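Researcher: I'd like a candidate sequence for this fold, 319 residues long. If you have to choose between options at a position, lean toward the conservative one.
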């Protein structure tokens, strides 16, 4: 039972990375992208190929996996910038399926349907992080999640984050204010894909083998459910959403009902979650992260300024 719970937390962390990337694309820019599974696959296969065929250390493959996924994000982002809504979702979904079919048929590089086996385990300072020792692997995964959260939280409060939100609210107004909407949309795709690529790298070193089968469009739907369930535009919320979706996915096995409930039930459940959340609570469980208003910023500046003036007066009186 404990190992199964640890497994849920490990997969929650891996999918939380993907969900944070999806949150940048969907939650901040408002683009309905359904190709996280494709970026996830690129990251997994990049780590598998580099470590098995070329003998690279896992820690060297992680940034390469993220960069290759980011490059794929730029490739899909540029030609689809003029698409919105359903059209963008269909285009990105098709891109994810293209990646899966390329992986499935490029036998000389990816091993085709058989995939790649015997991926070396991650190690650091001579200590091997064995995926069968779930406590150690859990710690490594959630360190990645913490770093990803801190990075994206910092990004959201930066000029880039404000520009992304402005594009989501009104692209024409943002463009008229001098924001290069094309550049920021491509950046959003690249950052979201990078996070999925890193998650794919962790997935490869956890399962120690990769095959094309798991990287279906249902993975992208699952990640989107995590963002919608937790709250778009809120990185803590999407981490919560990742845990809840993983818990729901493994709940039949956890209570011993896997023989009673068919596997297709998860697909029905994810669709039902999206419909219910869109009708009754479209902002998600935690909702969008609050941002300080203009009046709040002015009040804070005024308080700081007054505090500085009074401090000068006190110093002057003491002299």
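Model: Candidate sequence:
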């Amino acid at each position: 039972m404990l190992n199964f719970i640890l497994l849920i937390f490990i997969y929650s962390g891996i999918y939380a990375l993907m969900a944070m990337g999806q949150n940048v694309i969907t939650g901040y820019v408002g683009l309905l992208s359904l190709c996280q599974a494709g970026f996830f696959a690129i990251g997994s296969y990049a780590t598998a190929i580099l470590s098995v065929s070329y003998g690279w250390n896992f820690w060297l493959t992680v940034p390469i996996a993220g960069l290759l996924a980011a490059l794929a994000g730029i490739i899909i982002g540029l030609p689809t910038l003029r698409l919105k809504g359903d059209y963008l979702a269909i285009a990105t979904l098709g891109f994810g399926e293209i990646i899966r079919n390329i992986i499935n048929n490029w036998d000389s590089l990816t091993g085709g349907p058989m995939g790649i086996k015997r991926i070396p385990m991650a190690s650091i300072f001579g200590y091997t992080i064995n995926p069968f020792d779930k406590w150690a692997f859990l710690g490594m995964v959630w360190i990645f999640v913490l770093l990803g959260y801190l990075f994206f939280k910092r990004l959201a409060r930066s000029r880039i984050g404000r520009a992304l939100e402005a594009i989501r609210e009104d692209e024409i107004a943002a463009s008229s204010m001098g924001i290069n909407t094309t550049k920021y949309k491509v950046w959003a795709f690249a950052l979201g894909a990078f996070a999925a690529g890193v998650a794919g790298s962790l997935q490869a070193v956890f399962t120690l083998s990769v095959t094309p089968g798991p990287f279906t469009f249902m993975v992208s739907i699952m990640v989107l459910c995590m963002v919608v369930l937790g709250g778009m535009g809120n990185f803590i919320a999407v981490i919560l959403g990742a845990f809840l979706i993983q818990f729901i996915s493994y709940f039949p096995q956890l209570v011993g009902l896997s023989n009673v409930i068919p596997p297709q039930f998860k697909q029905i459940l994810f669709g039902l979650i999206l419909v219910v959340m869109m009708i009754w609570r479209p902002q998600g469980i935690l909702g969008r992260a609050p941002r300080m208003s203009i009046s709040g910023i002015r009040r804070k500046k005024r308080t700081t300024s007054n505090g500085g003036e009074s401090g000068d007066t006190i110093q002057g009186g003491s002299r």
